Amino acid sequence: MAEVDHLAAERATARFDVEEMKVAWAGSRHAVHVADRMARLVASDPVFRKDNRTMLSRKELFKDTLRKAAHAWKRIVELRLTEEEADLLRQYVDQPGYVDLHWGMFVPAIKGQGTEEQQHKWLPLAYKFQIIGCYAQTELGHGSNVQGLETTATFDPKTDEFVIHSPTLTSSKWWPGGLGKASTHAVVYARLITEGKDYGIHGFIVQLRSLEDHSPLPGVTLGDIGGKFGSGAYNSMDNGVLRFDHVRIPRDQMLMRLSQVTREGKYVHSNVPKQLLYGTMVYVRQSIVADASKALSRAVCIAVRYSAVRKQFGSQDGGPETQVLNYKTQQSRLFPLLASAYAFRFVGDWLNWLYTDVTQKLEAKDFSTLQEAHACTAGLKAVTTSVTADAIEECRKLCGGHGYLNSSGLPELFAVYVPACTYEGDNVVLLLQVARILMKTVSQLASGKQPVGTMAYMGKVQYLMQCKSAVSSAEDWLNPDAIQEAFEARALRMAVNCAQNISQAASQEEGFYERSPDLLEAAVAHIQLIIVTKFIEKVHQEIPGHGVKEQLQALCNVYALYILHKHLGDFLATGCITPRQGALANEQLGKLYAQVRPNAVALVDAFNYTDHYLGSVLGRYDGDVYPALYEEAWKDPLNETVVPEGYHEYLRPLIKQQQLKLSRL
Ligand SMILES: CCCCCCCCCCCCCCCCCCC/C=C/C(=O)SCCNC(=O)CCNC(=O)[C@H](O)C(C)(C)COP(=O)(O)OP(=O)(O)OC[C@H]1O[C@@H](n2cnc3c(N)ncnc32)[C@H](O)[C@@H]1OP(=O)(O)O
Ligand SMILES: Cc1cc2nc3c(=O)[nH]c(=O)nc-3n(C[C@H](O)[C@H](O)[C@H](O)COP(=O)(O)OP(=O)(O)OC[C@H]3O[C@@H](n4cnc5c(N)ncnc54)[C@H](O)[C@@H]3O)c2cc1C
């Protein structure tokens, strides 16, 4: 704990029990305790130091990542950490690396798509790191369009093998994390060809490198795809390129839970939906939503603490200047992001519940909720990552000039986070998937089919298409029913408008294509409704701790009314609310910001992040920002010598030349 607390006055104004808010944020007392222990374990270990990361070369950074991963594994084994603890440790190490893909995609792909026998064979090897795996799906020529992948897996009945081949340059696998330098194996997605027929994309376990000396196996060409955006950041990851030249693998290395190829080469598809092939992506999209609240809360924690420390203007007579956090503009930019962090946290928890529920149903051969799982994971992944990426950049601006320094932690956080808008499904592509499901649901309304799950509100079509908001004062917007109804009506009317416009096109396909920008907005409205609904439901629950429920209620209202204000055009154009009601919402938002203000620092303290994890001199718990900034500057390699390298070669001759010219005048 800090010796001098420059934020003590801020902490003293909090009107709620911070320790209890930590429980609400983490999900349980147990979760706070475990997270705390793992965060401190990482923070106190010199191997996990990361303050020098942006100054390392790519090679040094990669080696540092290997070292950290090996050390983390050593500690996991020595301390006999549980899976929950090990995953938290991995998160607090906070450096993207091959282990993320090994645990996050390779293992889940085998679990989800491998038969029991295959799981029995491969998972123990993966669990003990006797093999290291990655997820090789994307190719140079195709990423979003999975059905367009070109790599082939042709069955050879003579030898009972598949021949894996990259027929073109564009079929080179391109992007898989961990592939470039670390992985020994990959789950490779390729077109299955048997008996001369192409059966589309399937997964195969392929060994890439020798388990003796790590050299590529015959027929395998692979390497890293090169430096990426920002210093440090995602450059710790060896995203790779991979080409196959007729590489042979045994038939039983095709992942055969969903479909099989017999010894004779017959293709047999089990009686399950083909989309289960995409199951690993659904799993990771769900975990990316949980991750969004972490990245967003980190950025917001830095910006709130620094805004409470930073002072500018306001004094005419030599008195103290104003904390920038007191400026209404700073509050109206920052508090919605604080509220969004909480909103994403709770919707992430709900999505995790949904995913677990769907998985259990799938085990029991009930596929009825597969579409709901796809729509929610795809849509929430798209909205939460886009908002978080923009919000990190906004937090950088909220920290003024110092936010641009690497030591603020924000540039690296942005650079490491922003590809989340692209990987695991480009956000536009994913939102169009949601839109397709919305259009399907609207078209089924006429036949009387009652939508279920997060689409259930569409069943109230008669009412929602004509209802008028009853809000007549700013306070009326604090009523969750008023908010819920406005968001439901907006989402439904936007979807119905799109469906009507599409129905006037020559074909459904052409209409969808022409109206895709509107469809994107309808999908966003639907997903925002889910986030608002889940926040309202959370606040309705019993929440222990002095003032905790009240603070969450205020944040829930901030989130909802901020979205309403930002997308006012949607609400007005669909006639859900009047311009006057829109103005009242904005008025209420201003009052809510004033309510959040004295609690802001305590609300970010509730995230319970160590200074190590935050990695920011501006976000320090003790608020002692200026000495830290000053000290940090001297650590830059450029300051190792007083006179810079290059002075004698370039600066001195230039200065001397100019001096000579002047002396001649
Ligand atoms: C002891 C130690 C322990 C340690 C413990 C650690 C444990 C945990 C660690 C976790 C760590 C996690 C960290 C993860 C790190 C993440 C790093 C990121 C790395 C990035 C990886 C990647 O990017 S992988 C590649 C991702 N690629 C994509 O996402 C491609 C996107 N494209 C698609 O998904 C598809 O092509 C498509 C959906 C856009 C189109 O599909 P298709 O061509 O089939 O056509 P349709 O649109 O017509 O769809 C047909 C039909 O299917 C339905 N559907 C589509 N997708 C799904 C789905 N996923 N699920 C269910 N249904 C789906 C669609 O709605 C259509 O339905 P109809 O009814 O026919 O209309
Ligand atoms: C850091 C990082 C890590 C990754 N890790 C992995 C990994 O481990 N394994 C793996 O297999 N892959 C990985 N990928 C690849 C990733 O999954 C793809 O990049 C992603 O799915 C997007 O596909 P794309 O690159 O083909 O984009 P494209 O589809 O080419 O997108 C280009 C543009 O076209 C637009 N667009 C595309 N299709 C449509 C459409 N139908 N309608 C409207 N607009 C459209 C997009 O919105 C985008 O603006 C990773 C990528 C990154 C950046």
What key phrases describe this protein's structure?
binds flavin-adenine dinucleotide, lipid metabolism, FAD, Butyryl-CoA Dehydrogenase, subunit A, domain 2, Butyryl-CoA Dehydrogenase, subunit A, domain 3, binds ligand LLVTZLQY, FAD binding, 665 residues, AcylCoA_DH/ox_N_sf, alpha+beta, single chain
Quick overview of this protein structure:
This protein has 665 residues and is of the alpha+beta class. The chain has helices spanning 8-12, 18-26, 29-43, 58-78, 83-93, 98-113, 116-127, 279-309, 328-363, 370-398, 410-417, 427-445, 461-466, 480-503, 508-514, 516-540, 548-566, 568-573, 579-596, 600-605, 611-614, 625-634, 647-664, and strands at 133-136, 152-156, 161-165, 173-174, 185-194, 197-207, 220-224, 240-244, 247-250, 259-261, 267-269, 311-312, 322-323.
What would you say the CATH architecture of the domain at 107-271 is? Beta Barrel
Name of the CATH first level of the domain at 107-271: Mainly Beta
Specify the overall morphology: globular
Helix content: 40-55%
- pLDDT < 50 stretches: none
**Number of distinct beta strands:** 13
- State the distance separating the first and last CA atoms: 64 Å
- Percentage of residues in DSSP E strands: 5-15%
CATH homologous superfamily label of the domain at 107-271: Butyryl-CoA Dehydrogenase, subunit A, domain 2
Bound molecules: ligand LLVTZLQY, flavin-adenine dinucleotide
Count of helix runs: 23
How confident overall, as mean pLDDT? Answer: 97
Question: Compute the gyration radius: what is it?
Answer: 27 Å
Structural class: alpha+beta
Enter the CATH topology name of the domain at 107-271: Butyryl-CoA Dehydrogenase, subunit A, domain 2
Largest sheet: 6 strands, mixed
